[in-house]
Amino acid sequence: MTELHPGPELGSPAAEPSDASAGGDGPTRLIGLDRGDFARLIEGLGEKRFRAGQLWAWVYGRGLEDFDGMTTLAKPFRARLKAVCSLERPVAAEVRLSADTTRKWLFRFADGELAETVFIPNEERGSLCISSQVGCTLNCRFCHTGTQRLVRNLEAGEIVGQLMAARDAIGEWGLRSQDRMITNIVMMGMGEPLYNYDNVAKALRIIMDPEGLSISKRRITLSTAGVVPMMARCGEELGVNLAVSLHAVSDDIRDELVPLNRKYPIEELLAACRAYPGVHNARRITFEYVMLKGINDSPADARALVRLLKGIPAKTNLIPFNPWPGAPYECSSEAAIATFARIVNDGGLSAPVRTPRGRDILAACGQLKTASERKRRGGARSGAAPPGAPLGAPGPDR
Q: Radius of gyration (Cα) for the chain, nearest Å?
């Protein structure tokens, strides 16, 4: 049975986000600031450098939501921080709990925009699926999120804030890493992470810091539909695990399912995968493959997939299609999926079939979508890309 917990009323007035750096219009939001930002903040307040490390530990290590509890800081300094800084997190506008214990938050940010975050617990680990954009620019045909045009990129603080708000809700601040429920981060929520690379990279560096949120890069997976020019940079600078939304073995089918393929076809995408820094047999690339009835699920497709991925340290996740209202596709039959998996496994690739989680609350892969819409104020919103185009990056051909 699905439980629905309403949060603050949707559509209630919300302030525009303040400048994330010291000296902006309004309080400096500490969530999303990195080590260098903390040092500059402390210096600007006339405090000694070591205070930056103390503040970092309170904010990211212990997750405090008020300055009064930061007892290693002098009371006058705490008062100054309270006057000029904010520990604001995203607000949970809705929380949905699935019958299978998957939890989905609809987070509202300071400007009123919305994005979804999903927590998927199981016996061995708990994965938090984080969004990088409000909406998406890629228009993948099988994906519900792709039917929502891009509204804007999420800032680093809004990305980190999803993890922190989830920890608040679950109550796991102060626990040892081996005792936490959230053990893994997957950048597989709303949006294409590599089209918001700077904010995503800053957020992940904060998340990976061992004296703060402390989630190892080995437990972080970034999913991309194939933004080829950014893949090597991601591997070199972040070293996180890579998942690639493949979904087809021929360019004509992938052009339909993943329009980005028209810009970066399969041959270029797989070349970038072979060159991904740090990839080897013990650290493989995951290829996501949604199973669509009569589209990409034949035995011939399975054999072609084995040939395509030959020589790449890889595993494939076979994903039964998760339906959503108005979806143009159907899920492959259990028999077709089983045959496909057997052929791929016999070809030497690991091909587990992903068990759908959170379908009853539209929290499964490809089902995320919010009611956020691009705002227009006398024309295009300041700093926003045209509808359907990524911010700060060239969009896929249409």
A: 21
- Interatomic CA distance for residues 198 and 194, integer angstroms: 8
Hey, what amino acid is at 91? V
Q: What is the DSSP letter of 330?
A: -
Task: Work out whether strand 91-97 and strand 3-6 pair parallel, antiparallel, or are unpaired.
Answer: antiparallel
Q: Give the active site residue among 85, 136, 273, 365.
A: 365
Q: Helix H segments across the chain?
A: 35-44, 50-56, 75-84, 156-170, 197-208, 228-237, 251-257, 266-274, 299-308, 334-346
- Reply yes or no on whether 47 is catalytic: no
pLDDT in tens, 300-311: 999 999 999 999
Distances (CA, A) of 261 to 241, 249, 363: 21, 11, 26
Amino acid identity for residue 176 in this structure = R
- In Å, how far are 165, 180, 181, 343 from 125, measured between CA atoms? 19, 9, 7, 29
Burial state string for 172-190 with b = 16 or more CB within 10 A and e = fewer than 16: beeeeeeebebbbbbbbbb
Q: Helix 156-170 to helix 197-208 angle, to the nearest 10 degrees? A: 40
Model confidence pLDDT, tens digit, residues 200-253: 999 999 999 999 999 999 999 999 999 999 999 999 999 999 999 999 999 999
Does 140 participate in catalysis according to the annotation? Answer: no
* Nearest partner of 370 among 49, 43, 93, judged by Cα: 93
Q: What is the DSSP letter of 100?
A: T
Tokens of 107: 């987070």
Question: Are residues 41 and 33 in contact, defined by beta-carbon separation less than 8 angstroms?
Answer: yes
> Cα dihedral angle (317, 322, 326, 332), rounded to 10 degrees?
70
Structure tokens at 363: 């929290």
Q: What is the DSSP string of 350-377?
A: B-PBPPP-SGGGT-STT----S-----S
How much is the pLDDT for 23? 41
Q: How far is the C-alpha of 229 from the C-alpha of 236, rounded, in Å?
A: 13
The full set of domains in the chain, from first to last, is 28-86 (1.10.150.530), 91-361 (3.20.20.70)
pTM: 0.85
Name the active-site residue from 47, 113, 116, 192.
116
